[in-house]
Specification:
There is one protein chain. This protein is an alpha/beta fold and 356 residues long. It has one domain: LigB-like (Protocatechuate 4,5-dioxygenase, Chain B). The protein has twelve helices and 13 strands. Helix 5 crosses helix 8 and helix 8 crosses helix 11. It starts with a helix and ends with a strand.
């Protein structure tokens, strides 16, 4: 009897170890307040946004293949998410995420690299989300000094997971390649995006993928974080300051991110968004200031490698927490991760990029 008992115990232990290892391979949810992880609630929320949406659908003759997306609480920014995502029809997405201060605080200084993960899947509201094979190709072909692999960094960061429920609503079988972008110089970005874009181009051509239909590129960003809590109030803390700060955001969007995207405009974007210790200029506190430049460099190089195509940007919607207030969606588990006032507000926008 004793050997049978030991064997049974051995089987139980193996089963427990297998379950433990398997459960650890799925990226856990970071923010279960601001975002929606329940399928029925997501359906309800999207029905509300659809009924409230008065924007026209994108011209289907145009090839929307990349975008910049908000990643703030859904009850604040839902109406800014929606005009973009209703136009995304794709099978897989490369997502350039932020490396927020919460990550840097816990993991120390991170710079001059992109951060990949090694989770088997990510959580989604409808089912777990598959990872594109592109991620492992990037790991095998990109020089080791260009990236690190850290599940911990991706667990702490919320800027990529915010995008997942909207993507999965329109495609239950969506696949993602999550990439966090750290702070780096413009020249360093050029070097890494040169190598990364070649890998992506080979992947696209090797699988005969159609940009926009088969593969899409998303950059996660929230625009100006304004107020005392962000140590960012150069114009004051009143209605006039709010007006000035949001107008400055829009100037950057319209000057740098719409119409044709060129190398000069990408450089202007970096100059308008990146703090310069040598120059005490006022720059808006966009958390995606590095991912935006990195993403633009990448998609421009990918476009150039696709029969030398050009990219044109268009603004879907810009707004902020103070303007939008809280969406009147009831009976869900969604909530707010921060209050808003003239002393604490965040702006955001959605922007699409077309191949021509």
């Amino acid at each position: 009897m004793k050997p049978k008992i030991n064997f049974l115990l051995f089987v139980i232990i193996l089963h427990s170890l297998f379950y433990s290892l398997h459960s650890q391979s799925i990226r856990p949810i970071r923010d279960n307040i601001g975002f929606c992880w329940n399928a029925e609630e997501m359906n309800q929320f999207m029905n509300y946004l659809s009924n409230e949406d008065h924007t026209k659908p994108a011209n289907q003759s145009q090839n929307l293949f990349a975008a910049i997306s908000v990643h703030d609480d859904y009850l604040y920014a839902g109406k800014v998410y929606y005009p973009l995502y209703k136009n995304i029809k794709t099978k897989e997405v490369v997502i350039f995420g932020v490396t927020h201060g919460t990550v840097r605080k816990e993991m120390g200084s991170l710079s001059n690299v992109i951060i990949l993960d090694e989770f088997d899947k990510w959580r989604g509201p409808y089912k777990d989300i598959e990872i594109s094979s592109l991620r492992e190709i990037i790991k095998s072909e990109l020089p080791k000094e260009d990236f690190i692999v850290s599940n911990k960094a991706h667990e702490i960061e919320h800027s990529i997971e915010a995008i997942v429920p909207f993507l999965q609503y329109y495609n239950r079988d969506i696949k993602i390649t999550p990439i966090m972008i750290t702070q780096m110089s413009y020249e360093k970005m050029e070097d890494i995006t040169d190598r990364l874009s070649r890998i992506i181009l080979n992947y696209i051509k090797g699988k005969n993928l159609v940009p926009g239909k088969d593969i899409f590129f998303l950059t996660s960003n929230d625009a100006n974080h304004y107020g005392e809590d962000f140590n960012n109030s150069p114009y004051g803390l009143d209605a006039s300051a709010h007006k000035t700060a949001t107008e400055n955001d829009m100037k950057i969007v319209l000057k740098d991110l719409v119409l044709e995207v060129t190398e000069d405009k990408i450089k202007n974007t970096a100059n308008d968004l990146w703090p310069d210790p040598k120059n005490k200029k006022i720059v808006p506190l966009w958390c995606g200031r590095y991912p935006i430049v990195f993403g633009l460099q990448t998609i421009l190089k990918v476009a150039n490698g696709l029969d030398n195509k050009k990219i044109y940007g268009t603004l879907f919607k810009y707004s902020d927490t103070f303007t939008e207030k809280v969406l009147p969606v009831k009976n869900t588990s969604m909530g707010l991760t921060a209050v808003f006032s003239y002393k604490h507000w965040c702006a955001w926008f959605t922007e699409g990029f077309y191949l021509e």
